[in-house]
Amino acid sequence: MAKDSSDSGHTLWGGRFEGGLSPEMEALNRSLDVDWRLWRHDVRGSRAWAAGLARAGILSADEVLRIDQGLIEVARRLEAMPGPRGLADEDIHTVVERLLTETIGSVGGKLHSGRSRNDQVATDFRLWGMAAVRLLQARLSGLVRAIAEKAREVEGVVMPGYTHLQQAQPVPASHWLLSRAWPLVRDLDHLGSVLKECDVLPLGSGAIAGCPFDIDREALAADLGFSRVSENSMDGVSDRDWAARLLFGGAMTGVHLSQFAEDLVLFSNSEFGFVRLGDGYTTGSSLMPQKRNPDVAELTRGKSGRLVGNLMAMMTVLKGLPTGYNRDLQEDKEAVFDSVDTLGGVLPAMTGAVQSMTLDRDRIAEALRAEMLATDLADYLVRRSVPFREAHHVAGALVRLAEGAGRQLSDLTLDEMNGVHPGFGDDVFEIFDPAASVESRDVRGATSREAVEAQLDALAKALAGTL
């Protein structure tokens, strides 16, 4: 068994150099604290590479068996470790190879034949990335399902809809909730595209020029669960487009969650009072006993900033890279890990918040004002052959008349309405019913009960199609 070099700065290079790295450079060079989480993928990729070397005649049957058993033992040792603290190795690839040679001796040094850390890390990262995308898909779809379930639960509740944060038109509460689900479905669609782009094997690309041995890359891809192999070795080691697109998806999801969270912050405050979040998703004040703070929504809103920031960090790293692999790419993983971790925390919390929340139906009903039906008033005239521009002007004039009299629009008399335009009949007052207004909009994607049911069905189908 080789000497344990866990504290001796073991490296996978050095023959070209007389001395070691300076302490300052060692600190800058070390990535182990970040890429430690890739150890399972590094071991998995190494086992597949050993099998590939055996198929190519580079390793004997005995050697590949010893290496494979050694890697299984390495995995066992790494599983038992609390983390990278105390290890002097510069990265996870160095740790795995060092532990392998400690376990099986010098034959472990044959594993790296024809392989570079450039294609090795690209492979590890993609293996991790595919698993991470699938986890995000599951958690994101869980939130979409929770929103859909809540939308069904609040069926029949009509609330004010807002544009410019001003009351606009009445909408079903379910329609509002579903408006926050569809952006997340688009995020799921994007994750599906990221998964497809990530599903490319770079192993066998070497450092830049490919592998000199007769490695069956398609067999390697099958062993590791990739559906295809990279077509250009230089691109294979340097391509991080999938990671950038994952970060874009994370940033976009963060923005969508932040918008939903802002709704929850507003609708749960005392001025609106439409929504009450469960106790498990709110906190109190250390000074004011009456406070009930929507922290789950505020924290979600805040996390969007770091998700956007991680995207900017990655794009800045990539923008000036010359051809081939460059060490700048050491900075790729931390941003991706952080975004996945952030969403991994936010999505379950928001899912629970949605499941826990209730609507104050009385408070919502009190907030519905007749002025929101001004468009319905104009539509009433349109159905009586009045041009919409004229009808719009008439409805606006009636709103102004009601405001001037200190009354709601629905409190105007028929004579007052006909004093502005003669086209109104006794049935005009039927429009001052928010539920009727909602039900009158029956086109696809609109607010009627039938349209919302169709929307829920479409959402379920879209959700099934993204997974």
Estimate the strand proportion: under 5%
**What strand line-up does the widest sheet have?**
1-2
* Gyration radius, rounded: 31 Å
Largest sheet: 2 strands, antiparallel
Large-scale geometry: elongated
What proportion of the residues is helical, as a percent range?
A: 55-70%
Q: What string gives the helices and strands in order? A: HHHHHHEEHEHEHHEHHEHHHHHH
Derived from helix and strand composition plus strand pairing, the structural class reads: mainly alpha
For the record, give the distance between the C-alpha atoms at the N and C termini, rounded to a whole number: 47 Å
Low-confidence stretches: 1-9
Average pLDDT number: 93
Count of alpha/pi helices: 18
User: What is the total tally of β strands?
Assistant: 6
